């Protein structure tokens, strides 16, 4: 095939080729520009599924908060612990005094999966069970009742009954400025042993029975006590536990010796610790007690010394059960 070699034809071919390339380039550039513009437009769009979930979650939280504010009035703070703050308040419809506990979600270390597959804070699950089975019977009346609870995403709010004219047993001991008389200590301890039996039958292990977690009514002729703060409690009274939850100063000796502890013997040990503090006006420490730096007072009655010795036995197998403890002659 003959090819033209003149400059004009070469220039024409060159221009034709350039025009073709230019047209091709312009088309690609236009497509690229469209894609860039489309991408920028999409960058401004929120993923619809994520936005809907966020809005629904916020609406649920706002609804829960509105229900709480509509039903209760919150007043001054009167307690604070490692897991939350407690405020006084009242129910608006009947002025019922309540205690309102705020628990930050990051401090909810124990959870429970209920029969519907929901994951609840274990404290909520335990108090719901106690509410379902509690009556005015002996032992059961020592529990404060959970009235309502609200999940506000970042925190839990627990609304409980609040006994009037009550203070923590810890503050009561400080105000008393001296050991309690055996008669008063006996009334307090008998109620707590009965409460322990009730929890045992409900398959609940409190794990932190101490003066700070007990309320005492100060305006009644016969002192009445309430066991509170189930933040470290759990279900299952039968197994041995390998992770310790509770007050380190009151740790049962078997955990240091064997690395395990169980519900019944630990509850009896903690009741013994509490009785020691009531009658000696001294803070208990397991290590100090085992090294004989803390000793049971000689001035106590024979029966009282016997029940203390049994509760604070180093060998958990030799401690009495809660039922045996209730039948001890000291309570008669």
Automatic annotation (TrEMBL):
<comment type="similarity">
    <text>Belongs to the protein kinase superfamily. CAMK Ser/Thr protein kinase family. PIM subfamily.</text>
</comment>
<keyword id="KW-0723">Serine/threonine-protein kinase</keyword>
<dbReference type="InterPro" id="IPR051138">
    <property type="entry name" value="PIM_Ser/Thr_kinase"/>
</dbReference>
<protein>
    <recommendedName>
        <fullName>non-specific serine/threonine protein kinase</fullName>
        <ecNumber>2.7.11.1</ecNumber>
    </recommendedName>
</protein>
<dbReference type="InterPro" id="IPR011009">
    <property type="entry name" value="Kinase-like_dom_sf"/>
</dbReference>
<feature type="signal peptide">
    <location>
        <begin position="1"/>
        <end position="19"/>
    </location>
</feature>
<keyword id="KW-0418">Kinase</keyword>
<dbReference type="Pfam" id="PF00069">
    <property type="entry name" value="Pkinase"/>
</dbReference>
<keyword id="KW-0547">Nucleotide-binding</keyword>
<dbReference type="InterPro" id="IPR000719">
    <property type="entry name" value="Prot_kinase_dom"/>
</dbReference>
<keyword id="KW-0732">Signal</keyword>
<keyword id="KW-0808">Transferase</keyword>
<feature type="domain" description="Protein kinase">
    <location>
        <begin position="72"/>
        <end position="331"/>
    </location>
</feature>
<dbReference type="InterPro" id="IPR008271">
    <property type="entry name" value="Ser/Thr_kinase_AS"/>
</dbReference>
<keyword id="KW-0067">ATP-binding</keyword>
